[in-house]
């Protein structure tokens, strides 16, 4: 089986000749006429077939508009092929046979992504990073993708708001994790209504927890930004197989530091140590031009391996949920990834006593197998981000730089804000608390509501 990198290159006008549907398409293309429209500094290419409008494409240049129109026409005139040719961050390679555990996790995620984007009419040409979360049910030996996402952007400072209606971080792994939380909300709602859940269980008088036969596996098509990617890029990928033990690399003082995504910057500067009262950026300063800082994906995953990925709100209702494995598509170096994902939490110190249920989680780490080093290709990424989870069923398209849904796509369920934004999560949490008769847990302020989970906050501030 051949896989291309999961920043998935959706079949584009440039790749028509590589698809079996080319013969049928060539016959249909003979009947296409193209009309060029110019309006508001944007060019629109309108494709006609038998005197009717077949598709339109808009872009800042005629070439870009033609690519969009051709892509839409292609999806209409010929069936979309399987996206088993996957694209990770602009690199391509082939899987080794037989498939390993990590290969199977990647394959499941890409097949699900294929199915999700097949129903999306938007132009998806361009480099993408995808991430997915797979649920394993041990008793039935089944694996199901419960959340999938693609995205490479985060919000611009000018688009940031204080009402929680925008998505701040739209990197693929962050969107996938938020989609998983929606999945957990769905099953918590079932428990609060007295219904049975196959994923969660609750012993009377205690918090909900995962059923004993349930595990979750995280897949990312490339190394997460920050500590996990910076040194892997410079040190290269490792091919060696590892058992469950982690062998982190701590060769330089800069390795293992917290890092931030910085607005309008290609770098990942280390986070400066500041007093707790100054750890948040001031909105007024951001609006005046201070560059927005967002926690790197490596740091967020590391945080999940201590606090659980359920987040502070769900921590009042359920015990921590940890990933059992993390699979990368490319840019995998065991020593650097082990350090970035979890092992730096214990560097040079004894782990303090953590609240009940919390721990430093060391998931199984691995990468998609490959017969040769990945071949690099350069292609621009787009602002368009996609998220899907099995609780909501339909896909949602958002703009990664504005943090709001792409309304024109018809996939925005809530007008004006994403279902994965803070406000959306808070409403889901409020509904659960209302069903359970625990509305006193919902405060007037979002941060105050998060602080209700005392054990979560105590673990977060533990001196690790």
From TrEMBL:
InterPro entries for the chain: A_deamin, dsRBD_dom
Alphabetized PANTHER family for the sequence: DOUBLE-STRANDED RNA-SPECIFIC ADENOSINE DEAMINASE, EUKARYOTE SPECIFIC DSRNA BINDING PROTEIN
Stated name of the protein: Double-stranded RNA-specific adenosine deaminase
Domain A to I editase as annotated: residue spans: 147-464
Sorted UniProt keywords: RNA-binding
Species assigned in the record: Mizuhopecten yessoensis
Molecular-function annotations in GO: double-stranded RNA adenosine deaminase activity; double-stranded RNA binding; tRNA-specific adenosine deaminase activity
Domain DRBM: 43-79
Highest taxon of the lineage: Eukaryota
Cellular compartments per GO CC: cytoplasm; nucleolus
Single biological process term from Gene Ontology: RNA processing
PROSITE patterns: A_DEAMIN_EDITASE, DS_RBD
